[in-house]
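Dear all,

This email documents one entry for the complex benchmark we are building for the journal club exercise. For each entry we list the sequence lines for every component of the assembly. Then comes the predicted three-dimensional structure of the complex as a token string, followed by one or two observations. Please use this as the template for your own entries, and keep the labels exactly as they appear.
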Amino acid sequence: MPITRRIFMKSGALAVVGAAAIPSFLTRAAFADGTLGGKKKRLVVLFQRGAADGLNLVVPHGEPLYYRMRPTIAIPRSSVLDLDGYFGLHPSLAPFQSLWDAKQLAIIHAAGSPDNTRSHFDAQDYMESGTPGVKSTEDGWLNRALGTLEAKKKDASPFRAVALGANLPRTLSGAVPAVAINNVNDFGVGGRGAAAAGVSGSFESMYDSSVDAVLHGTGKETFDAVKMLKAADPARYTPAPGADYPRGRFGQSLRQLAQLLKADLGVEVAFADIGGWDHHNNEGSVHGQLANVSREFAQSIAAFWTDLGKIGEETVLVTMSEFGRTARENGTRGTDHGHANVMFVLGGPVRGGKVYGRWPGLDDRHLYEGRDLEVTTDFRSVLSEALTRHMGSADLSKTFPGFTASRPGLGFVG
Amino acid sequence: MMRDRAGRPLTVLLLASFLSSSIFTPWAAAVEKPAPVATPEETRRAAHALSRLTFGPRPGEIAAVASMGVERWIEQQLASQSINDSALQARLAPLRILKMDPRELVETFPPPQVLKAVAEGKMPMPRDPVKRAIYESALANYKARQAADAKNGGDAQAGPPEMMEADQDMAPETADRRAQRRAARGKAEELIALAPQQRFDSLLKMPPEDRRMTLRSLTPEQRERMVDGLKDEQRETLLALVRPQSVVAGELMHAKLVRAIYSERQLEEVMTDFWFNHLNVFFNKGADRYLTPAYERDAIRPYVLGRFKDMLYATATHPAMLFYLDNWQSVGPNSMAGKFSGRGRGRKARQRMQPMQDGEPPPPQAPRGLNENYARELMELHTLGVDGGYTQQDVQEVAKVFSGWTIKQPRLGGDFEFDARRHEPGSKTVLGHKISDGGMGEGKKVLELLARHPSTARFISRKLAMRFVTDEPPQALVDRMSAVYLKTEGDIKEVLRTLFRSPEFWAPEAYRAKVKTPLEFVVSSIRATGADVRQALPLIQTLQRMGMPLYQMQPPTGYSMKADTWVNSAALLNRMNFALALGNNRMRGVSLDHSLIVRGTAMPTDPEDALTLVASALVPGEISPATRATIRKQMDDPQYNGGQSVELNLGLITGLLLGSPEFQRR
């Protein structure tokens, strides 16, 4: 296989830690701060895979066209949770209401990628690489962003970048080590006990000495993380009172993420995703398929936020989805692939309680290609703002090459 | 990149440890006699070819292929129909769903909407006593769920059916329930004490509600004893009594693993996996729970080494695909059905078109317009590729072309149907070609056009090269394969022959260039050890944990074949843990006889020699000095060695080898 940048960086630039050596990050005061300019800053990115129908999540109920274009799936005015007299939340997003009222939740409408692809695969790829239209990008934007923050950290935690799930998403792949965790409680080899430690050591040693660049790099990241997590003893964990995670993969992902954040393992950026948004038919309105997945989405995020407690003050959470859906419902009471979508931003430093971005409207003249909501805010502008104003990134030219965020920015991070 | 993330709980997997131990006979070594010694070069070639054309070599197979000649063996695999696979057929024989058509599946293992119809008196209860028992149990279940829904304010009603099914098991555990469960377990013990036939008969005679409680209360261990001694069909019935729909999922996945592990027609299996993934459908989407077995059997498998256009047509007209990508609901806006829906005649048509809905409230309106989903994926993923030169305009035109390609009674397992009333009239323009008004013939023309398009030739050739050579295959190879594709009108066998004879396939850079997918890793481990799989469920669950659940890739992209997707911390840990469990014979449902790995050769007393022997038997190609030294050191660790049997040690060696970096590649 060709040597990608990721592999090169890993095999060439990283010092090799011997199997028996105690990783240096463990010798620091237990899970020392992982600070950035004195404060622990964290960015959580959530991806709604399948192209969520943003127009039914944050409903332009003040726009009569909306109701004309969606005769069977529109959310009736009487059911919309009004936000500002013009936009309102889908009733399944009710758990967001209190976050909105507390001004922790901001909404950016008509955001998305400038690329016109309507392929899930390509659009997700472009959003995750952070380079719309450029297929040759090897790594993900969040990994690159973390790379620019690296200067101060010599003994970085293996948990700086964490993805919840069986696979490492494109967003987090790249030169900076990142771990994928399926289940915090069985993140290890051979179970518990002394015998397991021996076997684990053998595997660590095999992967550590392997000349296989891909497996060597991942092996090292893995075993570093295993040791650190073991020391933190994740088995003893109960979520904060009132953090009621719904069943299902997404809720469990966020529960585990809260666990990792609260264990103070040095997590700086994290990623989780939720599928099931591709509603070409029988999308439903107040009830139905979209309502169900939205409820799971909102309940999980609200529980996560409750669970984080004070940590939330230094955390920003951003949601994204590869594109929006057609403004008009299609012939099968669903929606087809469209263009702009809605992004939610939640966090302590967020100036919430406001819908940001320019609303392009739904009349034919303003619809993208005559059918879809137009993109008026590039998704990278939203991410840039979170990275510069919250994470303290000074230079985004590597994170989003060839892109300059509009100034002065939207102003949702205060 | 992995694109799934369905995010929904999988409930179909209650499949039973009911599936029997008797399905599997102990491993019969594929190769009987030690072959005459081949040259080291031919042995190396054999190891490479086996790693690529099969799900991994079995004990002794590398030597056997080297001795018969690698070229000859490849030709044999390409002519898969001539290979005797009767041993596999015997293993598959008890899996009845493989032979049933979707209607029969729906009837035998009734889904909620059939039960609803029976409950409402719209369909008769079957007369056959076994089927009747299944229906009665399922109805009891269905009614219990209805009651629970009513209590929950009916909100669960809005959920997709697969979620509703899970809710039942998650009901809060009350004292009442616990008592019921205890009583049921006691009843179960009484039944288990009976002779098999008597036990089965008593179960059928029980009142449905009691039976439901009893069977649901079983512990895994009780379940094993409950089915002990029963005939295969009786075991299947028992499972159907608990959850009829899971029989279909269970046997389908079970068959997939059995074929991958035990088929002699390995290339055919590899290609069936490849093409199913290329023309992916998602098992858990509504009617596809009943349509998927027939899809693989009738639309994929017969063509995997045949002509691409035939497979394309077979999938385009298969209800599983029409349902998965929504085309069955697509209606031309200017068609009869499009123009008249919601009024007089349309309403009648609608009732005919949508006989039943899967637990969803009846639609307020019949479909009225186009759905682009299939049209887009047909070009992007099945044929041209995303850069293959089509536009949004083409997507819309192709959607019109395929309007009216629908399904008769999809929820009842119905067949493909071209409904002229839904078909958009008028001529269309696709990729610059005028397709004149011609009903179903338009779609046939478009499929032909796409199948012989140079972009399709390139896209398919590249993907095949990615499967068999490297993640980034050399362009020269792809070009030569594309040329053969175009010259032979998409003859897959010829394209593959070109690939297998190419210098690129045999180049040193291609050696171990591919990281195994989870499926390849799990199956190759079982094959390498010669283990005997008695129950597939634990393996099915392992694949789920590894992020590659069988038949459950939700997006139409199918699973990635590239290393980046499958190499990460969670995945590596899962692999190591699986390797250890299998090596130490602690994998549920699988038995490992370490002596089979070395095919009866006596284990040398010298640990160095023992390691050499086991490593060369398990891992195609060499292991690195570092891997060797690590394992060697572990062998001397008193914790594993002191006073322990050699067997334990062999288990550890096997586990470490299967979890080694070398074994993660093919």
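Observations: Residues 213-232 of chain A form the longest helix (20 residues). Chain A touches chain B through 84 residues (CB under 8 Å).
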